[in-house]
Structure formats: C-alpha cells, structure tokens
C-alpha cells in the first residue's frame, strides 16, 4: 500500500487529467466518450483515467485511508505514568483485534480467513509485550514503541522464511492499525460503511482488493495502476466498474457524488439525479450469455474463460463459457517448493477438464517466473526476471519438469472427455515452437500451440504457425514487451495499455500469420474482456476470446450487436490511430451499443 497522501501526487500519468468546470458548464468528458456513454454530458466536471472494468456506478466517494506512516521518535515526559502508557498499547491491540474479528464475522471464504489471520496477529501478545517494554524501559511514546516493536517482530518472521516470512505483512498491517488507534489517525484500509460507495485510492494493495465487497464498493478509482495491474484484473473478476491511472485525485473529496464509467475511463463529478438514475437503470440490466458467441451477422467467435483451478472452472461453466481458453496451471502450484508429482498434477487438472465435457480446454504449461516464481524451476537471482528464464524458457534448465507436466496433461486428458489443447507461454522463436510441438507429440498431445506474448513471435507468426496448431495472444505480456513497460508498474499505466496502436499492429501481424497457415488465433489476455477492444480483435481476425467469466455476457452482447464488417472497419480505425486514447475513443464513439448497455 502506498503511504503517499492522496492528491499529493504531482506527476500525473499522461492518461490522467482533471478538469473541473464551473457549475452549469458542460462536462469535460471528450465528445466521443461522452456521446458513447451518453450519461456524462450534464455534469459539472470530470476526472479522466483508464477504464479497466466496464460498467457504470454512482455513489459518494470514500477515500482509502493511507497508513499514518512512521511516528517521530518522541519520549514521554519524565513524570509520565509509564504503566498507564503501556496499558494504552494493550488497549489499542484489543480494539484492533476486536474490530477485525467483528469484520471477519460479516464475510466468508478467503476474505474471512484474511481478516481472522490479521486479528490473531493483533491478539498475539508478542508484539504488545515488545512495545510495552519500549514504553517502560526507553520511555518511548506508545505509537513509536509500537512502530519499533513491529519492525523487530517482522524482521524475526522474515528471518524464519517461508510461510512465517509472509506473516511480516500482517505485522505491518496490525502496526498501522495500532498507530491509528494510538494517534487518532483514520484507520487505514478500505472503509467499512453501511451504505455503498465509490472507493478512491492512490493505489490498492492486493489484499485491499481481495477484500472488496462488490455490494459495498460500487466503483473504484485509483491514481496509479494500469489495465493489467492486479487492481484491474480483480475489479473485472468482481464485476466492479473501475478507472485506474487517473493521476491527480484532489477533486474526488470524501463524500462527493461521482459517476464512474469503467468503460470510457471517466469519473463525472456531481452528476445530476437524472444522470444517476439512467446509469442505475443501465447497470441493473442483467445480461446473460447464451453459450455461443457470434457477431450480429452470425460470424462465430468462441467465448471462453480464463481459469486457474477447479473453482474457477466451475464458475466459468456456470457463466456459460464455451470452454477454457487459458488454464493457468502454475496457479495450482504457487506454494510448492518441490516439483509436484505427476499424480498430483493429474489430480489438479482433471476437475478442470471435467467441468467441460466435450468442450475445448486449453491447458497452458507452467508459466513460472517474473511475478509468479516457482522455486523448483525459476532462478531467484536474475536482475530482470521478466526478461529472464520464465515460461517455456524454464525447460532449458529443467526439461524434465515440462516433460512430466505433458505426461500429466496427457493422463488427465485420457481420463476426461474435454477436448484438450496444450500451449506454451513466452515462445519467442520458430525453434522453440518446433521443440515444444515435438515434446507434446511424444506424449500424444496433438493440439499443440503457442502463446504470442513476445513481439518476435507476433512478427514470426507465419513460420511459427506452420509448426504449431494454433496461437493464443497473451496481450498482457505482449503489451509489456512491445511497450517496454513493466505490467505491474502503475506509473506507466498509459504505456501498459493494449489499445496502443503498436500492440494492435502486432496482433494484426499474428492474425495475418494465422490466416496464411489457416490456423486459429485467439486472445486470452485482459484485452479480450474489454467489450470495445473485443470488437477490434474480431475485426483483426481473432477467432476466440478468453476472459474472466464475469465479462462473457458483456462481450457477447456487444459482439451480437455488431456485424463483422463493422468490426473490421473499427479495427482499421484503431490500428491507424496514433495513440491508445485516440484508438479507444474512436472505437467507442463508433459503438453506440456500449452506451445502450451502460458499458
Ligand atoms: C498474458 O500475458 O496476456 C496472459 C494471458 O498470461 P499471464 O497474464 O498469465 O501472464
Ligand atoms: Mg503472459
């Protein structure tokens, strides 16, 4: 979590801008987006960022309180009652533990576990005793004592490594809460309220986002973050409209009414009642997916789901996904220090295949490395892990791990009725393709393909697809590598945008290679979940789109309202644009259905 104060961030991203006009003036939403959204024209002003989770949401702003930060080294007065000051630390810990336990009781699943773990940490006497000792022996004020004691406890946990090291984050969370109680500062983290609100934050930590309750948090606006940031991915998975990379958030003051348009990337300030009503009506329309993606003129586009485990596969099947376009197998083994046995892998893969009998399931071999290290195949000492031995490249170091995985996939495929396709992440060359296809073939896996995530693979799509049966474009990494912008870095949100015309040209090149070899090209990166971008992808020649199950109905609805020729026209417009914003605005302006659907 960032400790920077809201609105104090002077270096706005290029994508972010704030424009507040005087009351009664027309809104500052660009004409294209304003027309497309159809709801922003009457507002007094707006904030612009990158729309990453489509939908409209209105409500009062609730700001995520940043931790108060490190208290100054201050000592108690010589005549202070040291026992009473020490007791304040224990009282604060009791209150923090109590609040967290009460909050845990209101939620379930993973969210409950997270809150209960932090509550236990607050109730653990180790931290309190260490802080009290500092009050009594060093006469530190309680807040400073809690800060220093937490630092020591966190260091001890880190030294133990593994699971215990991860608990250091909980100690910091408890520390920040103790300091809030002891100093009277606002409690850090997502506010808990009875009424729904629009959450406004400089940035969200993964745990903050995981804890969001979609019935409470109507919309999200962050200063930082890009389309592939964890905030964006989780907001889409939860179905919460979100605008990230908005830069200066000073206009979004606590309690101010706003309307978030997570498709257009705008936040309208003080929207009038009629605007809010129209937005609510549109947002309330429940769309379902009938299980067959197609354009208005009947051109088939398979709409598939991205999953990481059995529960994800069940949710995808329930949402009507036509199959699985990306099974991220590494998610099954992120906590493993040793290579999982073939039997263990078969047991992890079979339930995912079982959720889609007779349907396509594209299993991706382990994409270990960078932000998803797996200790049994990845090196930790690389200076640039995103450019290092990750994805298929780990087979250079540990070819047997890939071979065991292919054996497990083949066994799981043999035991279930799904139509199993296999693909490798991070393929860069024709030779890598040949080797992977041959390895699959030795295990009897005939449908072997590659992910196009590295620009070289996009440019070599013709010869690569002469060897591979199919390609699936990972737009998250393709954008990262084409734009040389770390996908996790919020400050480069404007570059980490799959609407960048250079990225679209690489997708076009991949589709050209697919057409030459008559091989299917799909997209399984986050771009597929953006209904407007999905239209562009289909126009470029993509034949399947794989996304978080929540996005299926929206993407299906927009495709169903757009014929193939229009998809092609809009793809041309996007590819010929000179900036990501121009491409997005022009395509959105050409798709009035987005406004009709509140996307
Ligand atoms: C991608 O890079 O677009 C992709 C789908 O893979 P991941 O997000 O798992 O890296
Ligand atoms: Mg990737």
TrEMBL record:
Q: Which InterPro entries match?
A: PEP-util_enz_mobile_dom, PEP-utilizing_PTS_enzyme, PEP_util_AS, PEP_util_C, Phosphohistidine_dom_sf, PTS_EI, PTS_EI-like, PTS_EIN
Q: Where is the composition biased (Low complexity)?
A: 12-21
- A biological-process GO annotation: phosphoenolpyruvate-dependent sugar phosphotransferase system
Q: Which residues form the PEP-utilising enzyme mobile domain?
A: 196-265
| Gene3D superfamilies xref list | Phosphoenolpyruvate-binding domains, Phosphohistidine domain, PtsI, HPr-binding domain
- UniProt catalytic activity: L-histidyl-[protein] + phosphoenolpyruvate = N(pros)-phospho-L-histidyl-[protein] + pyruvate
Q: Which residues form the Phosphotransferase system enzyme I N-terminal domain?
A: 48-167
> Which PROSITE patterns would you find in this protein's record?
PEP_ENZYMES_PHOS_SITE (PS00370)
Residues that, per the record, bind phosphoenolpyruvate: 328, 364, 476-477, 487
What's in the keyword line of the UniProt record? Cytoplasm, Kinase, Magnesium, Metal-binding, Phosphotransferase system, Pyruvate, Sugar transport, Transferase, Transport
- Gene Ontology molecular functions: kinase activity; metal ion binding; phosphoenolpyruvate-protein phosphotransferase activity
For the ligand (Mg(2+)), the binding residues are 453, 477
Where in the cell does this protein reside? Cytoplasm
In the UniProt entry, which residues are flagged as the active site?
A: 230, 524
Q: Name one GO cellular component term.
A: cytoplasm
- Provide the cofactor list for this protein: Mg(2+)
Q: What class of enzyme is it?
A: transferase
Locate the region Disordered.
1-21
User: Any idea of its EC number?
Assistant: 2.7.3.9
Iron-sulfur as a keyword of this entry, yes or no, is no
Where in this chain does the record put each PEP-utilising enzyme C-terminal domain? 294-562
What function is annotated for this protein?
A: General (non sugar-specific) component of the phosphoenolpyruvate-dependent sugar phosphotransferase system (sugar PTS). This major carbohydrate active-transport system catalyzes the phosphorylation of incoming sugar substrates concomitantly with their translocation across the cell membrane. Enzyme I transfers the phosphoryl group from phosphoenolpyruvate (PEP) to the phosphoryl carrier protein (HPr).
Q: Which family does it belong to?
A: Belongs to the PEP-utilizing enzyme family.
Name of the protein this chain belongs to: Phosphoenolpyruvate-protein phosphotransferase
């Amino acid at each position: 979590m960032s400790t920077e104060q809201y609105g104090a961030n002077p270096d706005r991203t290029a994508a972010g801008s704030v424009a507040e006009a005087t009351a009664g003036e027309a809104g500052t939403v660009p004409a294209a987006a304003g027309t497309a959204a159809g709801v922003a024209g009457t507002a007094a002003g707006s904030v612009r960022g990158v729309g990453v989770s489509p939908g409209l949401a209105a409500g009062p702003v609730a700001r995520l309180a940043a931790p108060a930060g490190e208290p100054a080294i201050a000592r108690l007065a010589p005549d202070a009652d040291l026992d009473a000051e020490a007791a304040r630390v224990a009282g604060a810990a009791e209150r923090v533990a109590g609040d967290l336990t009460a909050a845990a009781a209101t939620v379930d699943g993973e969210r409950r576990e997270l809150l209960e773990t932090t509550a236990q940490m607050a109730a653990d006497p180790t931290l309190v005793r260490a802080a009290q000792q500092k009050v009594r022996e060093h006469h530190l004020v309680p807040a400073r004592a809690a800060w220093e004691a937490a630092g020591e406890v966190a260091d001890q946990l880190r030294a133990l490594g593994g699971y215990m090291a991860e608990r250091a984050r909980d100690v910091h969370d408890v520390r920040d809460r103790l300091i809030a109680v002891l100093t009277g500062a606002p409690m850090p983290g997502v506010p808990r309220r009875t009424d729904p609100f629009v959450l406004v934050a400089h940035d969200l930590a993964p745990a903050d986002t995981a804890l969001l309750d979609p019935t409470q948090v109507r919309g999200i606006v962050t200063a930082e973050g890009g389309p592939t940031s964890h905030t964006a991915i989780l907001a889409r998975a939860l179905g919460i409209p979100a605008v990230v990379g908005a830069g200066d958030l000073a206009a979004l003051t606590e309690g101010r009414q706003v309307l978030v348009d997570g498709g257009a990337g705008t936040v309208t300030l003080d929207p009038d009642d009629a605007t809010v009503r129209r937005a609510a009506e549109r947002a309330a329309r429940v769309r379902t997916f009938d299980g067959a993606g197609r354009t208005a003129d009947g051109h088939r586009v398979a709409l598939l789901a991205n999953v990481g485990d059995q529960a994800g596969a069940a949710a995808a099947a329930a949402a009507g996904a036509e199959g699985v376009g990306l099974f991220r197998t590494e998610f099954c083994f992120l906590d493993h220090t040793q290579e999982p046995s073939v039997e263990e892998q078969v047991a992890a893969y079979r339930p995912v295949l079982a959720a889609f009998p007779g349907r396509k399931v594209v299993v991706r071999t382990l994409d270990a490395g960078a932000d998803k290290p797996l200790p049994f195949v990845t090196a930790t000492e690389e200076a640039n892990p995103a450019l290092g031995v990750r994805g298929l490249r780990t087979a250079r170091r540990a070819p047997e791990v890939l071979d065991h995985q292919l054996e497990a996939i083949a066994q799981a495929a043999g035991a279930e009725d799904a139509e199993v396709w296999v693909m490798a992440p991070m393929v860069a060359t024709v030779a890598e393709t040949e080797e992977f296809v041959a390895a699959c073939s030795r295990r009897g896996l005939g449908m072997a393909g590659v992910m196009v995530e590295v620009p070289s693979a996009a440019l070599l799509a013709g010869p690569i697809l002469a060897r591979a049966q199919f390609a699936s474009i990972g737009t998250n990494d393709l954008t990262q590598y084409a734009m040389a912008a770390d996908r996790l870095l919020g400050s480069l949100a404007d570059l980490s945008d799959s609407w960048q015309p250079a990225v679209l040209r690489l997708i076009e090149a991949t589709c050209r290679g697919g057409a030459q070899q008559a091989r299917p090209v799909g997209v399984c990166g986050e771009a597929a979940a953006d209904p407007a971008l999905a239209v562009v992808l289909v126009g470029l020649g993509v034949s399947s789109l794989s996304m978080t199950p929540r996005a299926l109905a929206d993407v299906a609805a927009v495709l169903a309202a757009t014929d193939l020729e229009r998809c092609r026209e809009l793809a041309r417009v996007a590819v010929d644009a000179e900036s990501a914003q121009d491409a997005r605005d022009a395509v959105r302006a050409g798709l009035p259905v987005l406004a009709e659907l509140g996307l």
